[in-house]
Amino acid sequence: MGALGSLVRSAPAALFGATAARTSVLRDADRAVRAPLALSRRIGFVQLAGGVGASTTAALVANLVAHRRQGPVLGVDAAAGARSMLWHAGLPDAPPAGTAGRRPDPVSAADATAGLVRTGSGLYTLDVRPAPEYDEQGSPPRQATESTWADAVAPVTRFFDVVCTDWGVRLPGVDLTAVAYASHAVCLVARSDRASLERAVSVVDALRSLEHAPVVVVAAVDLGAGGARAVDAVRWPPGTVSTVPTDRARRSDVPRSSRDLTVATRTAHVRLAAALLTPGRTAR
Fold it and tell me: Which of 49, 121, 167, 222 could disulfide-link 227, Cβ–Cβ 3.0 to 4.6 Å?
């Protein structure tokens, strides 16, 4: 609980309202992040449009969970672009795509983690995106298909407490449905303006109605300040939205650790992680 204690001590009174109740909410969220899991939990981060910050959110949550849990946590990069999850997680020189160094049919955690690069938080990382063709050297990686993800991740999932995947941009329909079926929880990352949030809400019920009923949380990222008003203007299904405030460190040209974030931003990601790890937990 040392990391949480530091966060609470560094928080201004205005953030926590100087009340024991607000501090208790944060402690409950941290406890949920650390709680034992009966089975490995798969969390998918996805956005319906580019430039919102799904990769940043995925990296921050994955690093946070890896730091606070005793069991191993895996971060999987399946999104197109050079600055996806692994870059934001602290690996500017990402490991090559593929399964080198891992057994295709592991029988132990040592088999499952062999050859995987770790971030400073302890997060194991795996890049499942296709390597550029010979004539495309230097071009940004392309997004991985769901079948490529399954081939690389399914054999090792059971050896990790949590598997966080950055899926990047996936459109409603077949792509997003496949992502949802690969996940116990889906985090839809959306810009906190009225149109973007209403579009996100429109797919929440569809995802929740799938046969395996995944947890679905919308992370409303305030990229322009004042987004809280847009969040309040939208009618949300219960336990759906988690707000993420503006933070310059999220838009940095170099990977940033959670220590570089404001207290409000770190608090928001703790609560988001708790909502994704705990079925039925209220996000807001």
Answer: 222
**What are residue 97's phi and psi, to 5 degrees?**
-65, 160
Residue entry with tokens 């040392």: 2
Sheet (strand 124-127) strand order: 117-118, 124-127, 73-77, 162-169, 41-47, 185-191, 215-221, 241-244
More confident residue, 229 or 63: 63
pLDDT digits (tens, 9 = 90+) for 141-162: 889 999 999 999 999 999 999 9
The answer to whether residues 39 and 181 touch, using CB atoms and an 8 Å cutoff, is: no
Amino acid identity of residue 273, one-letter, is A
Going by C-beta distance under 8 Å and a sequence separation of 6 or more, which residues neighbour residue 105?
Answer: 155
Structure confidence at residue 178 (pLDDT): 92
Query: Could you say which DSSP state residue 197 is in?
Result: H
Extract the tokens encoding 276: 């994704």
* pLDDT exceeds cutoff 90 at 1: no
Residues shown for the chain? 284
Region 198-227: what's the mean pLDDT? 87
| Number of Cβ within a 10 Å radius of residue 198 | 14
> According to the model, what pLDDT value does residue 17 have?
46
Long-range contacts from 256-261, C-beta under 8 angstroms, 24+ separation? 257/63, 257/90, 257/120, 258/60, 258/63, 258/64, 261/60
Q: What is the mean pLDDT of the chain?
A: 82
Q: What are phi and psi of 266, to 5 degrees?
A: -65, -40
User: For residue 42, how far is the Cα from the chain centroid?
Assistant: 10
Candidates 163, 172, 238, 177; CA nearest to 210 is 177
- Cross-strand bridge partners of residue 185: 43, 215
Alpha-carbon distances, residue 104 vs 36, 120, 123, 144, 151 (angstroms):
27, 26, 21, 18, 9
Task: Centre a 10 Å sphere on the Cβ of residue 252 and count the other Cβ atoms it contains.
Answer: 12
